[in-house]
User: Which sequence fits this backbone?
């Protein structure tokens, strides 16, 4: 049984000073519900780590994640943040290859796979984001695109080491257009097939695959109830503590 993971992706939103109030409200929303059977993490901006750590780690076993890391361990890369810097702060997860990184910062598969490889080597848990654009889906290229994005990583990375995949169809991110539970499950089955092909059955069965793209409290349960959907990567709704607490409780109620 794969443990569900709910991951919030704040992107470039909220101020560090807003963090304590957010988690207070989230706590109120969760109330007395039992959520110990799932994992919850927050990919916040680098500038929010210290305050988020202070308020979070005291109360809950929630984790923090970087939204991006550099593919070198140190050096002359002005403006970048390294894996060792993140780890030194006690942060243990990172998103890698989010579609916004691929689209606006030219992160091609080769860079993405280098980042995943280095993160795994250095003991940071990577959440690799993959997904097709609308044009790619409409022209029947979804499987091809997913295999290209995954092969770049599965070919290089150790199948012994931890990896979480987030399937985020680009057309569903921030658009209000969600993949239906059936469409998402179909893509997740495909991803698991590729994991099987490249890394073996045992690995594929254990691999957690999150769905991301306009997840809300209204559609989360339908998505999370599907056999191959092991959690969600949530952008917009993760900025709203009450809505997010609802999604967390819904995920925990699925047995
Ligand atoms: P969204 O973002 O939930 O706002 O669509 C998801 C993501 O980009 O991770």
Assistant:
């Amino acid at each position: 049984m794969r443990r569900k993971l709910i991951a919030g992706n704040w992107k470039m939103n909220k101020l560090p000073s807003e963090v304590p109030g957010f988690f207070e409200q989230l706590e109120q929303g969760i109330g007395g519900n039992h959520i110990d059977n799932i994992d919850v993490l927050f990919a916040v901006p680098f500038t929010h780590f210290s305050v988020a750590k202070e308020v979070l780690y005291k109360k809950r076993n929630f984790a923090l994640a970087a939204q991006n890391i550099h593919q070198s361990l140190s050096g002359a890369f002005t403006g970048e943040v390294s894996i060792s810097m993140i780890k030194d702060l006690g942060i243990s997860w990172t998103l890698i290859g989010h579609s916004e990184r691929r689209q606006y910062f030219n992160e091609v598969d080769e860079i993405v796979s280098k980042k995943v490889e280095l993160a795994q080597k250095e003991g940071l848990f990577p959440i690799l984001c993959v997904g097709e654009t609308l044009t790619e889906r409409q022209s029947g290229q979804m499987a091809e695109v997913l295999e290209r994005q995954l092969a770049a990583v599965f070919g290089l990375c150790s199948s012994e080491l931890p990896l979480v995949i987030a399937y985020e169809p680009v057309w569903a991110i921030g658009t209000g257009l969600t993949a239906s539970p059936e469409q998402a499950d179909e893509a997740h089955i495909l991803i698991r097939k590729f994991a099987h092909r490249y890394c073996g059955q045992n690995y594929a069965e254990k691999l957690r695959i999150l769905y991301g793209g306009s997840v809300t409290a209204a559609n989360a349960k339908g998505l999370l109830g599907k056999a191959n959907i092991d959690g969600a990567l949530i952008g917009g709704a993760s900025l709203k503590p009450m809505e997010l607490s609802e999604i967390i409780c819904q995920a925990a109620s699925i047995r």
Summary: Residues 9, 168, 173-174, 212-215, 233-237 surround 2-phosphoglycolic acid (CB under 6 Å). The radius of gyration is 17 Å.
